[in-house]
From TrEMBL:
One of its GO terms (biological process) is isoprenoid biosynthetic process. The keyword Magnesium applies. One of its GO terms (molecular function) is metal ion binding. Coiled coil: none annotated. This is Geranylgeranyl pyrophosphate synthase (Fusicoccadiene synthase). It comes from the Eukaryota. Keywords: Magnesium, Metal-binding, Transferase. The keyword Transmembrane does not apply.
Amino acid sequence: MEVTSLLHNASLILDDFQDDSPLRRGRAATHTIFGPAQAINASSYTIVKTINHVAGFASNKCIQETTQKVMALFQGQAMDLFWSYNGRCPTMDEYYRMIDNKTGQLFCIATGLMLDSQKRIPAKASASLDTFTSLLGRYFQVRDDYKNLTSVDYTQQKGFCEDLDEGKYSVPLIYTLETQPDNIQLINLLSTGKKSGRLSREQKQCVLEIINKSGGFAYTRVVLLRLYSQISYALKELESSFGSSNPEMKVLLELLRIEN
């Protein structure tokens, strides 16, 4: 857990700076307190420290795999930044590939380290774990993006629809742009946000209304419900593979559930 916690915190510091986010969990983001230079340095140091920590207890194969997964984290972030910087809307498949790298690999690092510490793991159990972590990564990110545009709690923690200020593309917005490619109002609102770096509250409300009318939020809820069902099934397969139940994970999944 220490490894994934360190990597996660380091990635959040970089992510907030790269997205120019002023808040993180309702408090000032690191770069707004210590400045960009120290934030980048601290994040880079933490990532190197984490890999060095892994090298102290993991097998050579696991060290190599962990390093590759960390590289995949950066590749996923690069895709996300590229779309935002260039105002290019990704396809759904591209978006999911980005998630699999940016978010999914963090879960894979945790499970990879756990598997490495065990002497014998059935092949079926390893495959079940890969499926579970991949689905969990997708659900976690799609849910986070959805909540950013719809949750009052997220507004208090990160600001009102901050993803729109950052030019981020998420499932609700991608769906809307795919089903309404000629919606001039939406295209101009997104263009305005890219040029100014910010959208007013009223402009964001317009974007939300367009997404809602297009069915973007309803579609995203369907996606989340489907992913949740797949995760629940994957957990049952995982429990069967290891021959024991996992009540803690069931509680966690229940806390992450999105009601239709």
